[in-house]
Amino acid sequence: MDEATILHADLDAFYASVEQRDDPRLRSRPVIVGSGVVLAASYEAKAYGVRTAMSGGQARRLCPQAIVVEPRMPAYTEASKAVFAVFRHTTPLVEGISIDEAFLDVGGLRKISGSPVDIAARLRSAIAEEIGLPITVGVARTKFLAKVASGVAKPDGLLVVPPDGELDFLHPLPVRRLWGVGPVTAEKLGHRGITTVGEVAALPEGLLVAMLGGASGRHLHALALGRDPRPVRTGVRRRSMGAQRALGHRDRSAGELDAIVVGLADRLGGRLRTAGRVCRTVTLRLRFDDFTRATRSHTLAQATAETPAILQVARDLLAASGPIIWSRGLTLIGVTLGNLHDDGAVQLPLPFGRAAAGALDGAVDDVRDRFGSAAITRAVLLGRDQGVAVPLLPD
User: Fold this and answer.
1) Class at the top of the CATH hierarchy for domain 241-391
2) Residue 10 annotated as part of some ligand binding site
3) What is the pTM of this model?
4) How far apart, in whole angstroms, are the C-alpha atoms of residue 246 and residue 192?
5) What's the topology of domain 171-224?
6) Hey, how many other C-beta atoms are within 10 angstroms of the C-beta on 45?
7) Using an 8 Å Cβ cutoff, are 118 and 167 in contact?
8) Pick from 313, 334, 333, 340: which is nearest to 243 by CA?
9) pLDDT tens across 72-90, in order?
10) How is the cofactor bound (predicted)?
11) Known active-site residue 205
């Protein structure tokens, strides 16, 4: 049987941990990052029920003694870069899946680095000593089980799932531990009395497919049996990028929503050009008071990195979504750019006069790089609280 050689390394309460590291007064105290919407909460705050994406008001009611700090994205980015440098020093096989977590394959390193559990322990020590942050590591034979193990071991833990004990570990866990099971799917399964991974595994695949659809049913059935053949992939560029803004429960005017979309499209256009990418698909993501979600997307005929083109599509999607926005209570809005390609691999469009728009975007990017992101902005955003556009996880 294969050895457990895949590590899932996940920084604990990342943003809040960086704040506690950088300000000794915050250590061992409940910390909330973000005043309008909770972007992160320390484990001291989580003990009171504070959770990510919760409104700031609700979080403060749950934990009145919490210290609220505004996010410092440059500090988090710098910490992430330092952590990933330790990952790559540990093994060349690193697959980052977000700013604060990654898979590492340490197979074949036993003779030079020791067993996978030894490597995991040294990795945790190195990040604690060199970077000053707590990290949890799960070790297993597959990516899925390694990620589940790290989730169970949090915070600041290390858990190994031995190959001969995989199902004994997995099956007693709640169904929400399965990738792809959110509140809606968990509710569907719960209505049928299915609350654990083992109960999912005991169902015929055909019944899961009938309940949840083809792809989802087959996916969950395989995971419940511990099947996950995906290797750790390196050097794979993301297929999409996005940002979102939580709105709280206050009603927003059409002008406010438009300004938020302008801000999101503006940020994403800059990120796209910095990465040397172009996109073809623009997706508008919406979340409502009852936690249901909706998406609207449009695929362009020609790939682009021009902010005006991206913004126009996002505005059109917003306008088309008006009926559901005003009837259901919008609490979050996001924009995602998909079908990404390297900008040098895409044929230039005609007419070539469109290059002027790209030159303007480039000039704006240069000013912001030199003088800061607030040095130049769009007129519609002047005087508005733009909040924090939270990056969406890469696919």
Assistant:
1) alpha beta
2) yes
3) 0.70
4) 33
5) DNA polymerase; domain 1 (1.10.150)
6) 26
7) no
8) 334
9) 989 999 999 999 999 999 9
10) Binds 2 magnesium ions per subunit.
11) no
